[in-house]
Amino acid sequence: MTTAHINAQPHDFAKTVLMPGDPLRAKYIAENYLQNVKPVNTIRNMLGYTGFFNGHRVSVMGSGMGAPSICLYAHELYSDFGVENIIRVGSCGALQAHVALNDIVFAMGATTDSNINLIRTNGYDFAPIADFDLLQQHVSIAKQKTLKFHVGNVFTTDLFYNSHTETTKTMTRFGVLAAEMETAGLYCIAAQFGKKALTICTVSDHILLNQQLSTSERETGFDTMIDIALQSLDTKY
Ligand SMILES: O=P(O)(O)O[C@H]1O[C@H](CO)[C@@H](O)[C@H]1O
Ligand SMILES: O=c1cc[nH]c(=O)[nH]1
User: Which fold has domain 10-234?
Assistant: First the structure.
């Protein structure tokens, strides 16, 4: 059985799916970290794979950019493919001076300028939060590795390019750690289906300081985040 956007059978996906925005990052994870890999989605080149890491069955698939895109993939994975946990492994732009390039951000919650959850809840202001167990398990791995990480609020925005500088200033003033484009949608979909989700992001840009990681730095930083997400498979969740 396939869905509108995923040409796989229900058993083709593992219970846990790592979801980067970029389908080529999904391919990178599958090719560099997983064993016995099988492609499970090719529709619209939103590449998906299932394989094994340390003996644990796991899938990885791109989400595309923005809440509408991740919401439709998360919906189909939770409703039709038996997926229980979606771990977004993304990039983000820092909104605080103490958050530096390459740091890891765990999204405990997500503020948003998107209407997507208001539409889903028919006008109620749902608070999108991470699954506590997933958050705790992943944070404890980051602690063991003595990585520089932050846990808190992210700003899920519909606009990568926003000319209203006041928006950024407000988010910074309210302690929001970083901007990205999917988490508020993902957390609301997980709640709708009674499933689990967590976003981990690597800081690839600094919005306040106008800094960006180079291509090779991005790769190393992303490897750190991917390691955390995959190592957490050793813990039971
Ligand atoms: O690197 P990914 O996971 O795509 O995440 C971030 O990068 C994209 C914007 O460049 C948006 O999807 C944003 O959330
Ligand atoms: O959404 C995003 C992602 C990375 N960097 C940003 O500044 N914004």
Answer: Rossmann fold (3.40.50)
